[in-house]
Amino acid sequence: MRVGILTGGGDCPGLNAVIRAVARSLVKLVGAEVIGIEQGFLGLIERRVRTLDLREVAGIMATGGTILGTHNKANPFGYFGAGGADVSDAVCAYVRELDLDAVVVIGGDGSMAIAHQLALKGVPIVGCPKTIDNDLAHTDRSFGFDTAVAIVTEALDRLQTTGQSHGRVMILETMGRYAGWIALHAGLAGAADIILIPELPYRLDEVVRVCREREARQRYTLICVAEGARPEGGGFTVKERIEDSPEPIRLGGVGNVLRAQLEPLVGCEVRTTILGHVQRGGSPTPFDRVLATQYGHAAARLVAAKAFNRVVVLHGNRIDSVPLADVAGRSRNVPSDHDLLRTAWDTGISTGTLVA
Ligand code: F6P
Asked: Which atom belonging to ligand 1 lies closest to the Cα atom of 242?
């Protein structure tokens, strides 16, 4: 077999571990030749591929980023390099020219949506869920999430000591777009006093109440806020619009908005830290390395079995797969009855809401 592999969308710790596992498993299981497609779907559009032999995937388990490169604007159904033209027929022809039996797409919801459209045009696809946000439909965990949570937790630990020393309100803004998984998990792990997530619009008076209460007792307050958090009745804080991107809106800055809202209403100083891409860079945690390896192996097995147009997923502790169509373009948010929310409320953490 000849099998292509690409990494699409934003990068994520563990991508190289997946690439390694796919390549090693395919060589072992079916003696496949693995073709690395550079910079996500851009490599299929601009015809940039290279053979990935086992030497190329050696020593990459612990490295961040992706050895193949990625691109979050490349879309064959609206190519930014050709005024948004649909170049998908040329991409399909290139896949046939390369004589690929399948393309393994490692990506998030946007990449899966593109992969699904290509699958409908006859390209055999196997998908592998990637995003630090952990918001892909039908899978309990995407690799990269555990690493992001570890980084945010460490940041909260550090902010706690400086916040305590100065008696300040310390706000930490996390990634996670419209899903609050990173902020919720890391907020719990990092002992935040207030966790604000997009799924539960916050009341400023409730955030102020908690800060004031803590001012009187512990003197400092730790707030973990997801970039997609917003006040009740208010909108998202949009950092920029990237018009030729499949997902044009980039969020960011709600931590600064919240600081400006809080400062006149609390007695102490307020500081904001926006972690940004630090959450996506660097070496994956052991958990993410194992999960990424399991996903890569499972993807290779689907290819070997010619079970195409499926995405590998994690259900509980079991690796499984679901139809690509079920995952494409869908996301998974924190449900308002999620166990972790109850845990937060019952341990005295505020989510800026009155539900507790
Ligand atoms: O989806 C992953 C993610 O890291 C989001 O949490 C964040 O909003 C976005 O990507 C940032 O994307 P970019 O790479 O365009 O800065």
From this structure: 15
Q: What is the pLDDT of residue 356?
A: 52
Same domain, 162 and 62: no
In terms of C-beta density within 10 A (0-12 exposed, 13-18 middle, 19 or more buried), how is residue 60 classed?
Answer: middle
Please check whether residues 188 and 298 belong to one and the same domain. Answer: no
Q: Which domain holds residue 162?
A: 148-281
Closest Cα to atom 11 of ligand 1: 250
Indicate if 310 and 185 belong to the same structural domain: no
pLDDT digits 0-9 by tens, 144-184? 999 999 999 999 999 999 999 999 999 999 999 999 999 99
| 279 CA closest ligand 1 atom index | 4
Beta-bridge partners for 50:
36
Residue range 115-129, pLDDT digits in tens: 999 999 999 999 999
Is residue 333 within 8 Å of 199, Cβ to Cβ? Answer: yes
Separation of CA 279 and ligand 1 centre (Å): 10
Q: Are 310 and 139 in contact (CB under 8 A)?
A: no
Strand partners, 273: 172
Strand order in the sheet with 125-129: 49-51, 33-37, 2-7, 102-107, 125-129, 310-315, 318-323
Which of 249, 264, 281 marks a domain boundary? 281
Count: domains in the chain: 2
Q: Which tokens hold the place of 130?
A: 């990637």
* Cβ neighbours, 10 Å, residue 83: 8
- Expressed in angstroms and rounded, the spacing between residue 334 Cα and the centre of ligand 1 is 18
